[in-house]
Predict the 3D structure of the following.
Amino acid sequence: MNKTITLSLLFAVIASSNAQTQVDIEKAVKFGKYDVAKTELYKLLKTEPNQGENFYYLGKIHLLQNNPDSAAFYFKNGLRATKNPAINNIGLGQLALNSGKEKEARSKFNGAQSNIKRNDISTYLLISQACLEANKPDISRATEFANKAINAQPNSVEATVMLGDIYLADKSSKLALSKYREALSLNPKSPLAMMKIATISTYNKDYATAVQKLNDVVKDYPDFEPAYKELAFANYLWNKEEKDSNKIANAAAAYSKYHQLIGESVDSDNNYADFLVKIKDFNALNEFSKARWKSRGENFPIYKYAAISAYENGNNEDAITFINKYFDVVENKESFKGVDYLYLGLSEIAQSKSKDGKFEKDGFEKGLANVKKGISVDSSIAEEMNSYALELFKKGNYEQAYYLFDLGTLDKQSPNYVYDTYYKGNCLFLTNDKPMFDNQLQKATEAFNEAIRVSPTTHEALLMNARAYRFIDTDASKVEMVKNYEAFTEALTNKKMLKDAEMKDALIESYMFIGVQNMNKDKAKAAQAFNKVLEFDSSHEYSLNALKKLNKK
């Protein structure tokens, strides 16, 4: 759910004497341009120091930016205002929820309702959103206050959408959809309701429908900014399911339009740059970073994006210089995102590599630790490990690749989980001549078996698992070897890949070892296997001799 929707919709409660300033602040908050909003609110604190709403929204913005101490400062000072101080209890209530202090939160929310006017739903919706945005969302309480808003104004599109958002956050997409449709029935021309209905398709991974519906929204309402952002992410997620450069191009175009409509600011520029990183358009990121560097001069966000573009464009020296500058100049260390640690770590890993292709141990481990930290901040980063690990794997840096693939397996929901696990086992198998661990081949089979457990028909994992068991060379491992070779041939049969030229040698290998292990156990099965080998290579000497021996017995 977009955390700023309700906040922006209700921003009009600020009793500003300057209507245009009010509109500017509302738009800035709505689109995450917190730098602009804070500048205007700081001005209002001087001209309207007794307005409690000004303190509340400053505190709320700091809360959204993960600055709880600053948020608390403004909420507490807002309680001392002479006009509408009670609204600040909502912010303090959310802080209490974040700290697990439910009784205190309830007390603060009760305090916020002390002076509610009849049919005024803004306070109810703000409390509902605060409950939903808490570190551990309070779905029950969020629902309670959303329903209070609906009872006060049964025809409110915003309140009905809020209840839909709560259902969606609670993973009840059917209930959410029903509320979004109800909101649309209340106002058939509501682009917000239309957009929300489309997001259900995105949630259900029906990206084709989501994109179609969102395109309809922007066609009918070309100035409705949030729809372009939703369209960008729907295309991005669709591309993850069905690799298609057109979808990435559409995602980039939609977000560019969104960025154009909401206007420039440091925050909006950073969000645009973050999206370029997400879709891996590093050439565009490089050009955008240069343009902002030229227009604004050196500033800490620029260092970050200059580092990312430098790394992804192969300039490791500049990457480490810029990312270190970024980490040095940012005062609020709590604000670092997972992606920040990711590129710090990747830059350090790249720097630790010498001209001969070897990695300096301390430098590599330092970089790896920062990548791990990035994943701890944002678990979705584990998904990104695949491409970086594959790059190392293809260059024969199996030990280093292993550690990155291992990080990739931390997120079992990642679409790359099966192949990250497979490659993790592969790295262990390929470094067994100089093992990193005790019982390394056994660890390799554990990785292959996990990949097979999740995806039983992954033929690559079945083949490598068979080979690993073959090299373990115990009676028990030989049984597992045959089982995996048989599963490999069955998988290729079902996939109609028996005639694939690239599979020929692997199939010969599989049938030959199946035959060898059955020579003294099951002569018919052994003969069948060796005959399979001859279907691929009629002059295969070992199989011909084995069949002669079997026929003599």
